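We read letters as residues; the integers encode the fold. Take this protein.
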Amino acid sequence: MMSDNDQSEISSAPNDGGNAENSPATAAANSEAAPVALAEKAPRRRLPFRIFLLLWGVALAICAAVASYLFAEYDGANRGGYFVIVTLYAMVGAAALSDAAFRKIPNRFSYAALISALALNLAIAPLCEAWNWREVSAWIGANTGQWGVAWESLKGFGLCVVVGVVSFAVRGLGGGDVKIIAALGALAGWSLSISILLNTLLVALAVGIINLTFRGALFQNLQILLGRIIHLIWLRDFSSPLKFKNSESPFCLSLLIALILLPYVNLNAWLREVLP
């Protein structure tokens, strides 16, 4: 049984409902920690959708201008396809920058790239061929017949989707990487996609070995450098990036290096010569 003194001590204690979290000391600590919690949960700033579409249109216009210059000045062999090539480099380059700096590729960017690639090769290019716009078709790279370019694009898209989904299932790639690979396949087509993917496999292996040699410090420092540079240029949604683990390397960076090396190192062409 409790004595009268015990009862008086209990009655004089603060009524916190039996919960220590409601005590004055705890409340004061919670009030001090509240700004930190609110700051952590504050929604990240994102570009308005209209501004994003405007920037995307400007980027495509710049690619078109560069492609037009290359087509006019250096197309002595009448090869064409400069718009696809320039857009491919710009798309993979932007994805590689985001991947290396922040370990993520925004969905707005990857979906816009995929839709643009499919629209170009499944709608615009076949219409140019159907209307006999030969110069425009050559500039785009759709000089394989009216529906040849669409079929080539669909095959490349299907190949890259399969490769991306399988790699995602075995935790080799992230969701943003899969969408960028799918956009690459739709834009580059079957044959070019095979060459790029094989080159990327070779480059990713080399990059992974180099990264492990430096115990993961290579991409940790690269991420810090790129993140700070972009933070100075564009102060939006670039705080607190996810850090790379020691065994991780940005896939889209390997993809960009493979694309740059493609005119000089083509593993697919080499295998065709070696294998019967």
